[in-house]
Amino acid sequence: MNKRAISVALIALISSWPLSAALQQPQPEQQSQAQPLLQGDGWRLIRSLQLGSSKNYIHMVLIDSKRDMDKAVYGAALSKICRSEPDFCRVRFWNEERLVPNAISFTDAQFKGMRAEYIFNRAGHVQEMRYACTVVSDKSQCFSH
């Protein structure tokens, strides 16, 4: 009888184990929510990707396609995104969400769709804003695809 009670208890324990393990896993609504992404008039931050193990990021921004030739929209995005990054800030802009890359490197099509890029690196004494030549015609401020 003692063996039977132990066997029943062991079977009950084994059969309830997957259920208890599933109950201990955090449910989606219990997981911490990510902070809302920045946005402004004519632009929206899509994602920020960390550069290796540094604390530096490349920010991927979507510009409203109807306003992608308005330099003020780019400036407003930079002002909001880079204000908390006093030593390094890199921002890339696209006007088609499907072209915004999920990784730091990107395809030729994604490069061709990029509208602008901003880089600020205090240590390297670099601060540069460059636009696609289809956005600005000044060759000193643009890159061609």
From TrEMBL:
<protein>
    <recommendedName>
        <fullName>Beta/Gamma crystallin</fullName>
    </recommendedName>
</protein>
<feature type="signal peptide">
    <location>
        <begin position="1"/>
        <end position="21"/>
    </location>
</feature>
<keyword id="KW-0732">Signal</keyword>
